[in-house]
Amino acid sequence: xxxxxxxxxxxxxxxxxxxxxxxxxxxxxxxxxxxxxxxxxxxxxxxxxxxxxxxxxxxxxxxxxxxxxxxxxxxxxxxxxxxxxxxxxxxxxxxxxxxxxxxxxxxxxxxxxxxxxxxxxxxxxxxxxxxxxxxxxxxxxxxxxxxxxxxxxxxxxxxxxxxxxxxxxxxxxxxxxxxxxxxxxxxxxxxxxxxxxxxxxxxxxxxxxxxxxxxxxxxxxxxxxxxxxxxxxxxxxxxxxxxxxxxxxxxxxxxxxxxxxxxxxx
Amino acid sequence: xxxxxxxxxxxxxxxxxxxxxxxxxxxxxxxxxxxxxxxxxxxxxxxxxxxxxxxxxxxxxxxxxxxxxxxxxxxxxxxxxxxxxxxxxxxxxxxxxxxxxxxxxxxxxxxxxxxxxxxxxxxxxxxxxxxxxxxxxxxxxxxxxxxxxxxxxxxxxxxxxxxxxxxxxxxxxxxxxxxxxxxxxxxxxxxxxxxxxxxxxxxxxxxxxxxxxxxxxxxxxxxxxxxxxxxxxxxxxxxxxxxxxxxxxxxxxxxxxxxxxxxxxxxxxxxxxxxxxxxxxxxxxxxxxxxxxxxxxxxxxxxxxxxxxxxxxxxxxxxxxxxxxxxxxxxxxxxxxxxxxxx
Lengths: 266, 343
Hints:
The complex is a heterodimer of chains A (266) and B (343).
Chain A: H1 2-28, E1 38-48, E2 51-52, E3 61-62, E4 68-85, E5 90-92, E6 97-101, E7 109-115, E8 118-127, H2 131-134, E9 150-151, E10 156-165, E11 174-180, E12 192-197, E13 203-205, E14 213-219, E15 237-238, H3 243-252, E16 256-262
Parallel strand pairs in A: 1-14, 11-15
Antiparallel strand pairs in A: 1-2, 1-7, 3-4, 4-5, 4-6, 4-8, 4-10, 8-12, 8-13, 9-10, 10-11, 14-16
Chain B: H1 2-28, H2 56-66, H3 79-82, H4 135-139, H5 148-156, H6 161-169, H7 176-188, H8 196-201, H9 209-221, E1 236-237, H10 251-254, E2 263-264, H11 286-295, H12 316-327, H13 332-336
Antiparallel strand pairs in B: 1-2
Helix pairs in contact in B: 2-6, 2-7, 9-12
């Protein structure tokens, strides 16, 4: 009896030992060793309020100043993307620059290549182009100056371009906002960092086993507000770096918000 | 045996012949300068050719494009229209540049000289790289008024450009980068360093007494901005033309009020050829330019500190000596080099 008792204690203890071991395994085995690297797609769903953005100029919208307007062009650069891991560490995606253009269905997503496998809790990116890429001469791909996002007279990239019509825009009826500026001198750097939190969910990157698609809403109405209510009547034409551009650069940060994530196992 | 000797003699004779040929070449034919080189006494270039090394095919493509009116919207003007070789690649006797449909620009066409030593372009320095600089005149509505995509489409229709692109870059595909890099190769090779002034610096010639006096005046009154040997210090300065600035100049780029009325210091190389003078071409002769500095400097909040004490003291005799010196800056080799001309 005594022997049986001690045996069962031993068995219990060993079970405890084994289970505690197992428990340890669960928490210490790094997830990255079990997930394969793969692509992550950032899908930019350009909207105005609650509806998909129409860039044909056929739909009237109203901004926070009560001005009606249409949109005929909406393009912007997304660059220097960083994926934020569950543990808070950061993976900087090298070398990829994306030109998002609502008028071109092939240019509304940023496909990030070779993202290490694992769990991610957020993504960060720059609206705009960093200083080094602004002073590197004639480039190709998204940075080809033939894409119409380059100032020739004051060389550098236009980070975000929104054009359209509005009765508030004065005689011509057209408004044009070409926002950019990479120099820090005289406060004309219009690069802005956007942070998108996946919380409470995470995005698992696991090679081709799972889709990994982050849908981001981009609301042009937010361009005209937060932190500054911007009126087209006040200034309908901004086509150079400077103070006016900086106000709108501050406004473009919160155009971006998480809509949903597709992360199903295929 | 005699056959073998004969063979040896033949080989020897052939060697002697070849080596004598080579020797006579060395003696009689002046080796042409390579397309791109750093003249004696010049500082290091800007480094903007780093990703775009000059090649014979790239240079030839750049020259073809430079002189091809297909770059303008209505195919009437080319780069060489406003940058004429005989005018040191400025537009002689035109106050401001003339674009398509007789449209006028707002500034005087600058010379294209030793541009590989510049890292900013235009009178206001608005362009930050020699490769992207040509986009300015190509797309400016009062200059060539074309688009990069428009140029690419026209070049794709040509019978010879695809093969020139293949020679330069290994592919028939015509890209904006290929166009811009070829143009910058051509422009970078527009090196002027064989004026009498250069020959004197290199000990190959001597100034006349008048030229030498002019050089002394130059060094005391001009050289602080027109720094040797490029004869520009590449900075932006207000040289006292106006009290109020119709053209904000450098301030257009920096948005700083302190830069209003400042323009890039032009090189004085080939200055006699590139009249008229100043950013808006308002002064038609070197005589008037010197008169400006000795009698018409206008004070303003952004006047260059070197001119804030007022007009320079330059006598008529000194003026003549100075102009004699400025004439030594003309480089006939540069303006007659066939490699830089339309082919």
